[in-house]
Hints:
By secondary structure, the chain is of the alpha/beta class.
Amino acid sequence: MNPHTYLRCRRCGATYALDLAPTTCSACATAGQGGLLEVDYDYHRIAARLAREFWTERAQSIWQYAPLLPAGAEGAELSLGEGNTPLIRSRSIGAQIGLDHLYFKNESINPTWSHKDRCHVVSIALARALGYRRVVTSSTGNHAASAAAYARRAGLEALVLCPPETSPALLHLIQSYGARVILTEWDAREDFGRWLVAHDGWYPATTMDPNFSFHPNPFGVEGYKTIAYELIRDLGVVPDRIFVPCAGGDTLYGIWKGFKELRHLGLIDRLPRMYGCQPACANALELTLQRGGQASAILDQPQSIAISVRERSVGLHAVEVVSESKGGAPTATDDEILDAMRSLGHEGFAVEPASALPVACAAKLARSGKIDSSEVVVCLLTAAGIKWPDTLAQLTGQPLYVEPTVEALRQYLETHR
Ligand SMILES: [Zn+2]
């Protein structure tokens, strides 16, 4: 494990050694208040050991940044080549919406086709280092597939709790990594997860905010910091605005934490505006901000084609990021998301609906004149569309059959110019 790392309570500041199983602050719990723990570092010691080239070199995975990850360099043994994803400049969407410097950070090329690999390679490395033998998570898609892959790669047992309506394609993907899947109702998944962690020795491969998962886990969010490091490495400047799909808020928070670390270490002198993008009918972040940000809004029945970010509530750390960074919580309708998916496809990116969401939101802000054309804008494309064949079919329709004669081909071309 990283010797310059410890856990710190986000509420009272109490510190704990990293060999503690992920939980909440015991000092705050005694006072009847939940204090979330997050990973902190002895930055001065770390900085003294890092040469300037550390920030400009390209490597094969996020383990280039091991000094700023809690697992330390031995976590690299689990690497499948996660991270180090390309930052691609837009060729057509930027021109259409009036942005001269629009970039896509393509996370869909990660080992299990989503940004979650950054989270789980770090989280599972900690599970192994802390002596766990079994890993449990609760998810319907990217999160579970990634947790399963890294848990099994680490030689740990993996159990995934899914709702019965989970798409068969995703269930088979999760199982293909060697994980066990239990199908059960939403509330039971929370109860099962809590019981397994508290009474049966399972490691919670979950998210940071306890309002959002059955048990808080402060480790995975550290993996998302590497997105900020890579952006600075590849752009050479601080982006003005970053649009990120937002479910619980870990990705948004992790990227923000990465930028703040870079400023703390004296490598950048300003921070980007951060946007947590959500579906119009699953907008817990927007509602929470409107209501003062003290407690998450709870939606009865969130609706959206963007299933990966269709959640009832949001973590308060996402609220903190949007407020601190003077960003926003923009939303997009399903039609706007599908339009963005289509436009991204025409630029070479076949992404899932949640990944089209930031592009839809950035387009709305740009078209309303709220972003200057000279600003550097980054949209995070979190996951591949190929995992959702039904959604792709909805986007494209069925191709036509043409009889096997040249005459039939000619007729086809005449009627489909
Ligand atoms: Zn505390």
